[in-house]
């Protein structure tokens, strides 16, 4: 009994007891058993982020309440297979106290995680613990995510051995990290590929595109095509006035599909690639009436029955009405049949009144069935809300 009443002696006795500490019992184990942790370390390159994010959601609350080296030791005595996972988690989230208490550490792997996630202090700690190599993945990851301070530290610390790849500048450009792109252009020799301008243009990073252009970076037609698709008018204009790659008909097709009227106008007025029937078809499909009007009034490519079919399918009555009044392509049975299935009764009534027999088929539903179906859907929705 005296032993049980003595805190220090009782703690020593309990050290040899099998099982899990009571405060660890509520933590779910299924996703982090020994097999899962071994698999994580074997294939960490492909599963790191998802696995560690899941681990963070599960274990972080406990780790915040138990931040001492002794607490971590208790956890690892019960679940020793978590050692490498906890170390990876600490590097990714910058938990220095964990990195200081865990031994041994897989330093290059942890350095990559810390660098890619901008954990400058963790990077410095790992180097101080004896990390003597810096993989290209560490530099590429830091560049991709815009962590200039980490990139500068690694470049200076491993000046003789550090190597990155063209992914560094390509991905930094894609994500709009101009300061990183400038650093890589000035301090490194790996350069970039056409992907840098192409993806910077696609994401609307005009200043990155300008800098890369001024420093002789290559590009392809994808730059203008993707910039147009995403509505980046200033980038499209810059590429038109300063680059020679140009684009294709996809540029106007994609801009029209996404409703970027100003881009469509610029391409029409300044480029020769034109568009295809996909431009008006897709603009109608997604309800971009002003784009449909512009294409009808200024372009000769026209459209197909796809335009009215899918404008009807998606319930864009104003587009359906405009196409009926200004175009001759008409629609097929798909228009009413799909509009009815989607509950667009005004579109159905409009089409049935003007197209008793569609091109290429017959209506497969009567107006009474359509109205009944719409009413039934409304009643179901009302019942769910109530």
TrEMBL record:
Stated name of the protein: Uncharacterized protein
InterPro entries: Ankyrin_rpt, Ankyrin_rpt-contain_sf, SecEffector_AnkRepeat
Protein's organism: Aphanomyces euteiches
Pfam families hit by this protein: Ank_2
């Amino acid at each position: 009994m005296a032993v049980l009443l003595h805190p220090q002696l009782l703690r020593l006795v309990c050290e040899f007891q099998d099982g899990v500490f009571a405060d660890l019992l509520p933590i779910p184990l299924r996703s982090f058993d020994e097999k899962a942790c071994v698999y994580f370390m074997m294939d960490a390159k492909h599963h790191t982020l998802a696995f560690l994010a899941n681990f963070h959601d599960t274990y972080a609350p406990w780790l915040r309440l138990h931040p001492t080296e002794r607490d971590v030791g208790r956890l690892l005595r019960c679940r020793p297979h978590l050692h490498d996972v906890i170390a990876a988690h600490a590097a990714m989230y910058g938990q220095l106290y964990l990195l200081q208490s865990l031994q041994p550490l897989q330093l290059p792997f942890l350095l990559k995680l810390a660098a890619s996630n901008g954990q400058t202090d963790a990077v410095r700690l790992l180097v101080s613990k004896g990390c003597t190599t810096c993989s290209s993945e560490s530099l590429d990851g830091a560049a991709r995510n815009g962590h200039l301070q980490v990139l500068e530290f690694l470049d200076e610390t491993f000046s003789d051995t550090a190597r990155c790849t063209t992914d560094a500048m390509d991905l930094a450009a894609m994500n709009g990290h101009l300061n990183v792109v400038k650093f890589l252009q000035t301090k490194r020799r790996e350069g970039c590929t056409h992907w840098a301008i192409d993806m910077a243009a696609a994401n609307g990073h005009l200043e990155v595109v300008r800098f890369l252009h001024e420093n002789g970076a290559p590009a392809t037609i994808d730059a203008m095509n993707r910039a147009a698709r995403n509505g980046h008018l200033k980038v499209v204009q810059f590429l038109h006035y300063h680059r020679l790659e140009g684009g294709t008909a996809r540029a106007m097709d994609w801009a029209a599909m996404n409703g970027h009227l100003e881009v469509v106008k610029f391409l029409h007025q300044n480029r020769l690639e034109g568009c295809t029937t996909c431009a008006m078809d897709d603009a109608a499909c997604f309800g971009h009436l002003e784009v449909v009007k512009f294409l009808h009034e200024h372009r000769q490519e026209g459209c197909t029955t796809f335009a009215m079919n899918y404008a009807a399918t998606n319930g864009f009555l104003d587009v359906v009405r405009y196409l009926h009044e200004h175009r001759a392509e008409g629609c097929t049975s798909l228009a009413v049949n799909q509009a009815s299935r989607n509950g667009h009764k005004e579109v159905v009534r409009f089409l049935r009144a003007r197209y008793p027999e569609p091109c290429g088929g017959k209506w497969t539903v009567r107006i009474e069935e359509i109205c009944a179906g719409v009413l039934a859907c409304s009643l179901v929705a009302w019942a769910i809300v109530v």
